[in-house]
Amino acid sequence: MTPAPTICLGFDFDGISVWPASFGLTGATAISRGEFCARVAAPRILRLLEREQVKATFFTPGHTVESFPEVCREIVAAGHEMAHHGYFHESPVGLDEAAERAVIERGLEALDRVLGVRPSGYRSPAFDLSPNSTRLLVEYGFSYDSSMMAQDFEPYWARTGDVLHQDRAFEFGPELDLVELPVSWSLDDFPQLEFVLSPPIAVAGMNEPGKVERMWLGDLDWMVEEVPGGVFGMTMHPQSIGRGARMRVLEALIARGKHHGARFRTCAEAAEQWRSTAPARRGAHAPAA
Q1: TM segments (predicted)?
Q2: Each residue of 9-21: pLDDT tens digit?
Q3: Total number of domains constituting the chain
Q4: 288: pLDDT confidence band, cut at 50, 70 and 90?
Q5: What are the E-state strand segments in the chain?
Q6: Cα–Cα distances in Å, from 103 out to 72, 89, 116, 165?
Q7: Does 143 reside within a domain?
């Protein structure tokens, strides 16, 4: 019997923090985009998820939890997963170990104090990790990460201690007790739909929703046909997918998933499901599959 596909609807609930932290934008207009994310888009998405009776994962910075506690409590009360996404949408790249620890701990503290949540999952802001990140996630008790791209529709064990040599083969570090739920920029709504101008950074998505819908449904159909029991991991941002007609894209994705008999799982559920039948972890220097 062919195993059912899994769909993980992941929302990076950045709120205000993404604009100053990632783009250096602190003006009133940028802040208002974060306010739209929390006050308008997130509740709109919650209503859709309730109507469709599907669960999702909200990767949420501690700053969002503290700034918009009411909607964060609604997310938890509805049975959705809250996962770690930094404190102020900080990229771990460029942080020394002490600073990265401080960001992890500050995010954990906010989630615990405001929501009573101890997250099992983590997604790095901007999909980037430091050399210390995966090892620290294991140390702090995380079960999974969702920041890397070595697979498209199959989880795998994350590693630590990789070494990039420019004069000989890449050196693969040992696998960790940390499930990696892979991501992809092509299954991320932000570069497809958002416009940001903050020199030297420019994001000029602004695609019409139909194009994005065709991309995503095409990948979902391919996974169902070619990767039995695959995990379709989405990265969406309430401020992007939750504006106007873009909501129809999310509706279409859910409808197509139901047509395929997919199971809508939180990322934590998908990670634990994979862990239950996962291959043994490999030691240092083992090449990736």
Answers
A1: none
A2: 999 999 999 999 9
A3: 1
A4: very low
A5: 6-12, 57-60, 81-84, 121-122, 144-145, 156-159, 175-180, 195-198, 201-204, 231-236, 263-264
A6: 19, 9, 18, 30
A7: yes
In a domain, 288, yes or no: no
Collect all residues with Cβ–Cβ distance below 8 Å to 220 and sequence separation of at least 6: 5, 7, 232, 253, 256, 257, 260
Query: Is 206 contained in some domain?
Result: yes
Domain extent at residue 199: 11-275
Query: Residue 279 above 90 pLDDT?
Result: yes
Cα separation, 266 vs 289, in Å, equals 26
What is the average pLDDT across 30-44? 97
- Prediction pTM value: 0.95
Average pLDDT over residues 162-170: 97
Per-residue pLDDT of 191-233, as tens digits, reads 999 988 887 877 878 899 999 999 999 999 999 999 999 999 9
CATH number for the domain harbouring residue 17? 3.20.20.370
Asked if 176 and 135 touch (Cβ cutoff 8 Å), the reply is: yes
Size (the chain), residues: 289
- Write the pLDDT tens digit of every residue in 113-156: 999 999 999 999 989 999 999 999 999 999 999 999 999 999 99
The tokens 């997604």 sit on which residue?
123
String of DSSP letters for 69-130: HHHHHHHHHTTPEEEE--SSS--STT--HHHHHHHHHHHHHHIIIII----SEE--GGG---
Question: What phi and psi values does residue 139 have, to the nearest 5 degrees?
Answer: -60, -35
Phi, psi (deg, nearest 5) at residue 15: 60, -135
Residue position matching structure tokens 């599907």? 54
Let me know if residue 4 belongs to a domain: no
In the numeric block, which tokens belong to residue 210? 């139909």
